[in-house]
Specification:
Molybdopterin biosynthesis moeA protein, domain 3; 6-stranded mixed sheet; Molybdenum Cofactor Biosythetic Enzyme, Chain A; 20 strands; 7 helices; alpha/beta; about 15% helix
């Protein structure tokens, strides 16, 4: 702090008078050493002169010409930051696998590190398929559906650290779906929305096969989201999400988020906790269920209320949910008050 660098042994009580032998502004260290009966005028941020071990702040002194009188005793170490207070040479200040915050960047710079190795944000190219789809605000043909999933998917990709590349809505033709191979040449991962089931208009596998698509797995025992595809289009991973909007976004949480995390080299926390049931749940079948629900805190306990209707088209239920109740395959009936696993949607 602004004041005088002194030897604590020279100022054991108020009234000590010391000889000022120099000054130490920040960035201009005092080159000598503080001897008995001496003081150095010092300013915040300056190096403490050799020989001194205390700072008496300016408000507690009276200076005249080359003399300074102290109104208080000097205490060794007072108003001095020791070298290595924040971090020491050889210490780790930013770990691999961490998403760098503004505070991390400042800390790394403070550590005099001019360059760090980082992973770039992966490009996630996605396309919706379906003759029935139209963008919000556009005219709709009879039986048409507003394409909504892509907007939520793009926001999730950006939130999870990726770069969302929207390839638009592709019609239900083999040629259009096959064009994904040409539209996504710079992508690190390709996502399709819809066209992943077994109907004659579900074209993802059929259209991309001649373009080098190799299937890894298809269909999973979960609800919502059974018709999910994973494979590779050449060397690029491809994740085919179901077309129902809730299925699209829940599957993105469970499969796309960990994929982006792996590409970033970060550790993903599933945010699975427990809560007590407010309403009983019937026995589960052979698919793992992800049940939209709200959370309420009562007497310090979290209680979860599953929504009565869980149709995979109902985005409003997803938007108002706090959590997904996770029910394993063949789970028995769950009674009121029983603890269940919940996955945070935050």
């Amino acid at each position: 702090m602004d004041g005088y660098a002194v030897r604590a042994a020279d100022a054991t009580g108020p009234g000590a008078e010391l000889h000022i032998v120099g000054a130490a502004p920040a960035g201009h260290p005092f080159e000598g050493s503080v001897g008995p009966g001496q003081a150095v005028r010092i300013f915040t941020g300056a190096i403490v002169p050799e020989g001194s071990d205390a700072i008496v702040i300016q408000e507690d002194t009276v200076a005249e010409f080359d003399k300074v009188a102290l109104k208080v005793a000097a205490i060794a170490g007072r108003h001095i930051r020791p070298a290595g207070l924040d971090f020491k040479s050889g210490e780790v200040i930013a770990c691999t696998g961490r998403c760098l915050t503004p505070w991390d960047l400042a800390l790394i710079a403070a550590g005099d590190v001019p360059h760090v190795a980082v992973r770039r944000r992966p490009k996630i190219a996605f396309a919706a398929t379906g003759d029935e789809l139209s963008v919000p605000g556009a005219s709709r043909k009879p039986g048409g559906i507003v394409a909504s999933s892509g907007f939520g998917l793009a926001a999730l990709i950006e939130r999870w650290g990726g770069v969302a590349v929207d390839l638009g809505i592709l019609p239900d033709t083999q040629e259009a779906v096959a064009s994904i191979a040409d539209l996504s040449t710079t992508a690190d991962l390709i996502v399709t929305i819809g066209g992943a089931s077994v109907g004659e208009h579900d074209l993802v596998q059929r259209a991309l096969g001649p373009k080098g698509f190799e299937l890894d797995f298809w269909k999973i025992a979960m609800r919502p989201g059974k018709p999910l595809i994973f494979g590779r289009l050449g060397r690029t991973p491809l994740l085919g999400l179901p077309g129902n909007p809730v299925s699209t976004l829940v599957c993105a949480m469970l499969f796309l988020r960990p994929a982006i995390s792996a590409m970033l080299g970060t550790t993903q926390n599933e945010d699975v906790t427990t809560a007590r049931l407010s309403t009983a749940l019937k026995p589960n079948d052979g698919r793992q269920d992800y049940v939209r629900a709200s959370i309420e805190v009562r007497d310090g306990e979290r209680w979860v209320e599953p929504f009565a209707v869980q149709d995979s088209s109902m985005l409003r239920a997803l938007a108002t949910a706090d959590v997904l109740i996770v029910r394993p395959p063949h789970a028995p009936r769950a009674e009121v008050g029983e603890r269940v696993a919940v996955l945070s949607l935050d």
